[in-house]
Amino acid sequence: MQALGLEMDVPISLFGKGHAGAQANAKALLGGKGANMAEMSSIGLSVPPGFTLTTECCQSFCNGWNQQLPPLLWDQVQKAVQTIEDAMGDHVKFGDASRPLLLSVRSGAAISMPGMMDTVLNLGMNDEVCQGLAKQTNNPRFAWDSYRRFLEMFGNVVLDLPRAAFEDEMDDVKYERGIYDDANLTVDDLQEVVRRFQAVYAQHDLEFPQNVHDQLSLAIGAVFRGWMGPRAVKYREVENIRNLLGTAVNVQAMVFGNMGDTSGTGVCFTRDPNHGEASLFGEFLINAQGEDVVAGIRTPKPIAELQTVMPEVYDEFKANTEILEKHYGDMQDVEFTIQEGKLFMLQTRNGKRGGEAAVKIAVDLVKEGLLTKRQAIMKVLPEHLDQLLHPRFSDVDSADYQSSVLAKGLPASPGAAVGQLAFTNEKVVENKKNGIPSILVRDETSPDDVEGMYESEGILTARGGMTSHAAVVARGWGRPCICGCTAISVDEANGQMTVTTADGETRVFKEGDYISLNGNTAEVLEGQQLVAPPAITGDLKTFMEWVDEARDIDVLANADTPADAKEARKNGANGIGLCRSEHMVIQPERINQVRKLILGNEKQQEEALASLLESQRGDYEGIFEAMDGLPVTVRLLDPPLHEFLPPIEDEEIIASVAKDLGLSSDEVKEQVKAAEEVNPMLGLRGCRLGITKPAIIEMQT
């Protein structure tokens, strides 16, 4: 916007009725949320009005504006706020105690980063506005509840105050009142919470800003700064997200799900993100705000129950999800709020999904005429197929499996995971370095747990629903995850988990104990359960047939045995690109023949070659039969020979080899030492092995 003296054409984009237009698909500039707000407005959905500060603003804020909003841009922000006031009507005004307008300030990068960026809700609350909102809505509890939420969120996100400081004060008030659930706090209780939250600011030598425009400026800056925060940087590193300008900031009129029993909030996938069925998969809470659902603080209700609680809202919502799927041609992840019986669509994006769901959704969307086969292929990522080719638990109906079930939670992300209990990110990372699989167990995860979640085999939480932070991130990374497992109690300080089983028994498991997670059934199991290999059938078979029709390259396998070759052919390989013959002879029943070939006398070497010739001939016959005329590339014996010999310190194996060769253990040890090569890469391998041990190559040929 040259007239403003800013190095960008349009730093702010408006959305809402009458403002969706040319930039609706400019995701790189508006971010995922901003682009979707504009697009949802353009297709006629009820979207609360707002505006988007572009990703270019973030880039300039972080690099060239000294992390300050320039006066000319701030003027545009003020004008954009006025457009929100006009669109909302009813004479609402930002900062006016009699008819207050409250705002949300949310991040939104071009690529979704769930839970990694910052959000501030109820912005515009202060002492006077709280009193005015209570009178306006005739619902003082709603006003004070909104205020205490804002104080905590603003303090934590914008001013870096520890969330625990607010949670401790909240817990103290509930304890003093004998209350367990937040929803049971009275107006007087909430006023006391607000007083104590304001005191938290003072305890950290800070003052809560009563000026709502200062709040807005500080919040926008905090969201921009969050782009370079450690959580967001780590997530981009793990997900290999590069070349983005930054995050956009979406400022939007607040609509409230916590205005009583005719209000609520929810998150919903238009299809099941675990298995792909074409049915709504989501959760909602009555008398709550959006953060309550995704943060896992309260355990929500399944979306199907909304049809009973608010049938008209449910019907409208279902119709909206169908419009969204047809418009975007993909399964959507939708956030919504109901304010006093009126539905507002807050956000939509392509939903993250597991491998099984990705394939089924792609196949179904083609059958429904929403996608072509080639478009459907591009909806499925390589890692989705990788998940489907991983093992699953076998014999889930067996008595042994069923007797190992300790507890059940919510099936947040499918798959099978086996590992040692770990209660901290640090322990998971340490185990990973030592080659030990871990199950990360938490009361509830937060974005700070991203490293532990990534390095773990699976995730188990005591609280949270199927759209909580843990669930969304786990699904995206293909980690099995069970959330809302209320039967477990996590004691991180002492490194233990207490499980109350279905029959009332109390079991205690320590860090390092093995457990298994069945993400498909949400079962937590004792010990290391057996897993079974996958199979290409059903939707996956259909999908891969489409891929075969579209591809223009062949796919060859690494396969070293007839069984491997048969499996490769079953999975669609067009031949074997590398058959490593050393893998054929390291099997227990053959390794002794190789050792005899290396260490034995002339007669023993001839016997070993004859034995290996017979077994190798069977190997290649089996491989060629499995490949059925397709090409096979064989690498003749290649590793340094000393790699086939036993370690000198293993007296038992040395003694066994010595007995077979008719030598003493000391003689075998001397030969093993003599065969060792300092630099195997330049030693007796490949063609040099063929020169010094031609009989091996002759036998293999």
Automatic annotation (TrEMBL):
Cofactor: Mg(2+)
GO MF annotations in UniProt: ATP binding; kinase activity; metal ion binding; pyruvate, phosphate dikinase activity
Family annotation (InterPro entries): ATP_grasp_subdomain_1, PEP-util_enz_mobile_dom, PEP_util_AS, PEP_util_C, Phosphohistidine_dom_sf, PPDK_AMP/ATP-bd, Pyruvate_phosphate_dikinase, Pyrv/PenolPyrv_kinase-like_dom
Matching PANTHER family: PHOSPHOENOLPYRUVATE DIKINASE-RELATED, PYRUVATE, PHOSPHATE DIKINASE 1, CHLOROPLASTIC
Enzyme class, broadest EC rank: transferase
Record domain Pyruvate phosphate dikinase AMP/ATP-binding: where: 28-62, 67-301, 318-366
Keyword ATP-binding listed: yes
Domain PEP-utilising enzyme mobile per the UniProt entry, residue ranges: 438-520
Species this protein is from: Entomoneis paludosa
Keywords assigned by UniProt, alphabetized: ATP-binding, Kinase, Magnesium, Metal-binding, Nucleotide-binding, Transferase
Entry EC number(s): 2.7.9.1
Domain PEP-utilising enzyme C-terminal: 538-700
Name of the molecule in the record: pyruvate, phosphate dikinase
Family according to the record: Belongs to the PEP-utilizing enzyme family.
